[in-house]
Amino acid sequence: MPVLTPSTVDEVLTHLGEHPESLVLSGGTDVMVEINMAHRKAPDDVVALRGVEELRAWSRHPSSAGGAGTVTIGAGLPYAEMEHGELAELFPALAQAARTVGSPQIRAAGTLGGNLGTCSPAGDGLPVLYALDAVVHLRSVHGRRDVPVADFMTGVKRNVLDAGELITGVTMPIRAGWQGYSKVGVRNAMVIATVSVCLAMDRDEGAVSLALGAVGTTILRCPDAENWLAGELDLTTAHLDISDAVASEFGRRAAATAAPIDDHRSTAAYRGHAVSVLASRLLRRAAA
Question: Which is nearest to 278 in space by CA: 60, 97, 109?
Fold first, then answer.
């Protein structure tokens, strides 16, 4: 099959404008498995994005309102570059999620853009994007649009991406406060999440965000647990006093939001229990 290897976003958009059915390949860590296992038909042509340097960069933007600002991460930045360094310091939960993605070879190829393009509820990067209220940037020959991540994913492996559109990156606010990511699977490494949870504190707003992966048709936020905790604790302080009762109730409310199913990786009952345990555990870590 023909493979286009562009070096600029404009080249990609021009080709997609003429051939919107083309397969856009980032890391290929999901799509090649599906093609090899005959779950997806091989495409007529491929647009390989690895040579588009614009998509493999990230940048920090100051806030005019005096806050910490935002960070924009290119859709083609590999997970390996999120594990350490300044980006990991700004978004510890993203770094933790990146470290759980497959093997070093997979992390050198896999990207947030690929996670968003595939839109599997088990995608490791997605709960972090939801907990941090990320905005997804899309471009086509017809223009640009920005979509809140909560509106981008519409179901299992379904999203609002139009034919000929390209995911170019995501923007997330920099928040003051602890954040963390945790997941469980059928083994300890190189595994698709059975359940994943991301918790992010916002001391400036006195708020907490909690997002769940692999327990619904999309990533789920937990407004009941979030609002309850904000009413129980002063979340503007860096030193939280978390009792066992508060941690357990937070986990229970998180589990009540989940909508898990039985499948070949786990049961609904275990997934619900795991959500409760992971949410409670992350809250205790935030206090510690």
Answer: 97
Side-chain half-sphere exposure of 10, counting CA atoms within 13 A? 0
**Which residue range forms the structural domain that includes residue 62?**
3-173
Q: Which of 173, 189, 204 is the last residue of a domain?
A: 173
Burial of 111-136, coded b for 16+ CB within 10 Å and e otherwise, reads bbbbbbbbbbbbbbbbbbbbbbbbbb
Task: State how beta strands 179-184 and 166-173 pair.
Answer: unpaired
Phi, psi of 158 (to 5 degrees): -130, 140
CA 192, distance to chain mean position in Å, is 14
Give 199's Cβ-side CA count (13 Å radius): 26
Tokens of 141: 């020959």
With a threshold of 0.90, does the pTM exceed it? yes
Q: Does 88 share its domain with 208?
A: no
Tokens representing residue 225 in the block: 């647990």
Report which of 204, 108, 117 is spatially closest to residue 158, judged by C-alpha positions. 117
Residue 43 has a CB neighbour count (10 Å cut-off) of: 17
pLDDT per residue as tens digits for the range 126-173 = 999 999 999 999 999 999 999 999 999 999 999 999 999 999 999 999
Residue with tokens 């898990």: 260
Task: Tell me the HSE value of 75 on the side-chain side, using a 13 A CA sphere.
Answer: 24
Whether residue 149 sits in one domain with residue 77? yes
